[in-house]
Amino acid sequence: MNLTAAAAGNTEVLEAKMKIGPALGLHDSIEYILRAQHGQHHCRSVKADDALFAYLARSKANSNLAMPHRLRNVDDAKLN
After folding, report:
1. Would you kindly state where each structural domain of the chain is located, as residue ranges?
2. Nearby residues of 2 by Cβ (< 8 Å), 6 or more positions away
3. pLDDT single digits (tens) 10-24
4. SS (H, E, C) the chain
5. 80/70 Cα distance (integer angstroms)
6. Model-level pTM?
7. Measured between alpha carbons, how far is 53 from 31 in angstroms, rounded to an integer?
């Protein structure tokens, strides 16, 4: 996986989500974004100030949908 391209693409996804939220009447912050794609789970966990996100891509065979919660716990421990 090209991490530079993944980081740039996920920044665009996050910016789009933050832009469309108010238009939909959603004023909460984004905790995480989870995407399942062709045998992989992709997760972006977002810090409260929206200035930093962690990105994780794993094989579906080696992960499950509880992954965002575990990633958020890692963020809280390592990024604060």
Report:
1. 3-79
2. none
3. 889 888 988 898 899
4. CCHHHHHHHHHHHHHHHHHHHHHCCCCCCCCEEEEEECCEEEEEEECCCCCCEEEEEEEHHHCCCCHHHHHHHHHHHHHC
5. 16
6. 0.63
7. 10
